[in-house]
Amino acid sequence: DFINNHHLECKFILDNHQLILTEQSQGFPLTIDYNESLTISFNFSILKIPNDYFDISLLTFNIQDTYSIRIPINKITNNTEIAIVIQTNERKIKVYINNECRIFDCPIITKFNIHILPIISVGIQNFAIWKYALSEEHIQRLFTSGLSYVAIDYYRLNQYRKQVNTLTFTTNQQYFENDLLIPFNESFDEIKWEKKKIESDEDESKYFNTNNGNIQLFGNKTYFVLDKSIDPWLEYTLIFDISINYLPITLVRLNTQTEICITHDGQLYILINNEKTIQSELKLNLNEYIRLIISVHDKSIKIYINGLLNLDANLDNNQLIIKDKRIDLFKELDLTKNIISEDTLRIECKSITYLNKAINEINEKMTSANNSLESLVTLSYSIISPSLIRIGYDELSIKLAMKQTIT
Questions:
Q1: Range of the domain at 164
Q2: Same domain for 251 and 323?
Q3: What percent of the chain has pLDDT over 70?
Q4: Helix/strand/coil for 78
Q5: What is the mean pLDDT of the chain?
Q6: Same domain assignment for residues 387 and 365
Q7: Taking Cα atoms as reference points, which of 222, 227, 224, 251 lies closest to residue 239?
Q8: 38-59: pLDDT as tens digits
């Protein structure tokens, strides 16, 4: 799922931008648990042609009696395009082979496992799943335009999400679902960072615990690296829905000069070149959730706690500008300033929101960690519309759908 970054978990060889299935494999596995219909689409090429086969198994269902759909060898090309539409309510399966449709009866199924292209050596590309049955019109668009618009959308969306985004977490989370936020418990290494963005650790939960969908950091070594857009940020907003459990703590490192921290007794302060420059008067309470907002515009920085202004200062613009392509969160550069055992909870985080623009007005939604910030990060028309228009949707329909979604 390109939009929500939900990924299928499987272990296969990747080669030349293809997922490789061998003759010894049982095929590409999918578990389907829907009473509704769905569509599966992919391209494949046979890497080793069997001499005595007249047909091959396209997919096999693991049900009480194994059910298989086979396709003739003479229908297979160097790059065979497949679309499978499973209509469980009508008990029909439509299989499109290079846009030629065949209809099969579908067994009565509520939950089943599918094995795609079992026991044959093939390479698969452009694998996609829709949780509904694509219409005939959309199937034709799929065979005409392919999934190139999805890749373009993904790139455009990913670049946008490096500027405007809200990151939340899930119960029993073992790894981060996208590459925008990467956990570390050692000195930062850009090569390792780039590698982690492509290939996450087998189990990232060694860096954190979860509590009802909130991320918990223990000890003083673990921190997050946020991947931002490559352009310098002269103005921006950072919003943390957090519960602070141990002090002192570093919240964010803006650049090589400036950090925003909290003292032993709960006062916010700005650290510039390792010197405490500006400190708030109000003290934060431990072990309770707050919404902390950092808004920077030009030389001005304002920090709000639950909607109330806690710190207001003017600094040299170079001390606030974020020039790097990353932001370090909750990172303690000097571990001697925050001596804490590895089993002691330091901070719990519900969400992280960031925008490459300043917030000028604090409204009621921004006064509590319980309020959604979705309206701040909603995708713009310029991000959503290009590919939808390309595949046939009109501007009015897109704008109407956006309005209904926001409402």
A1: 158-372
A2: yes
A3: 90
A4: coil
A5: 86
A6: no
A7: 251
A8: 889 999 999 887 777 788 889 8
